[in-house]
Design brief:
Elements lengths: L1 H19 L13 H13 L1 H16 L8 H16 L8 H22 L8 H35 L1
Amino acid sequence: MLAVARHVVLLALAFVLQSTWIHHLQIAGILPDLVLVVVVFIALMSGHLEATVLGFLAGLCQDAYSPPDLGLNALAKSLVGFGVGAARDGLLADTLQVQVGVLVAAVLVHDLIYYVGASATSFEEVPGMMFRFSLGRALYTGVIGLIAALAIRLRRRVIAH
C-alpha cells in the first residue's frame, strides 16, 4: 500500500511539473513526457495492474487540458502501462539500457495511439506527425528517463551505505 501511495505522489509531482514548469526544458518545440516516464517505471517495478490504473488516472488529469479529445491521454497511458507491465517479466528490466529502450518505445506507442485517436489529426497525417514530433519526444523523454533512473540508483546506494 505504501508503494501505491508513493507512486501516486510521484505521478502527481510529474503532472504538476508537466503542466507548469516543463516548458522551460523545451528544445526545438519538443517536450519530454514526465508523466509517461513515471507510468513506465511503475509498470517496470510493480506490473501491469497498477500501471494501467495509475496511467489511466494520470492521463485523465492531462485530458482536462484538451476537452475535444477527453479520454485520449487516459487511453494511451493506460494501454502503455498495461503493455509495459505485462511485458516486464520477459525483460531484463534492471539494466539501464533496457529501461531507456522500453521508455523510448513506450513514447512512440503512446504518441501513435494519441495521433490516431486525435480529432484534429487525419489518419494520413499520422506518419508525418510521428516523424516530426514523436521521434524527438521519444529520444528526449528517454534521456530524462535515463537521468531519473541514474538518480534512483544513486539514491539507493546512498541509503544502503
